[in-house]
Write a structure and sequence with these properties.
single chain; mainly beta; 5 strands; 68% strand
Length: 60
């Protein structure tokens, strides 16, 4: 999973690679992008790194 994070103005911009749709743990959706839990980014807010937990999915 490749993810880039940056701040543009007052927006947090996240770019993440799409994956081949795979069933979620529950099997109700197909995951197309995920950080697979929380990922600490290099982006800083108030001197602290931003942690991102992202799941993008589709319904079959």
């Amino acid at each position: 999973m490749a993810m880039t994070v940056e701040i543009k103005g007052n927006k947090l911009c996240i770019e993440i690679d799409l994956e081949k749709p795979t069933p979620s743990a529950s099997g109700k959706t197909l995951v197309v992008a995920s950080t697979r839990g929380n990922a600490v980014s290099e982006v800083m807010v108030d001197g602290k790194p931003v942690t991102i937990g992202l799941n993008a999915y589709i319904k079959p």
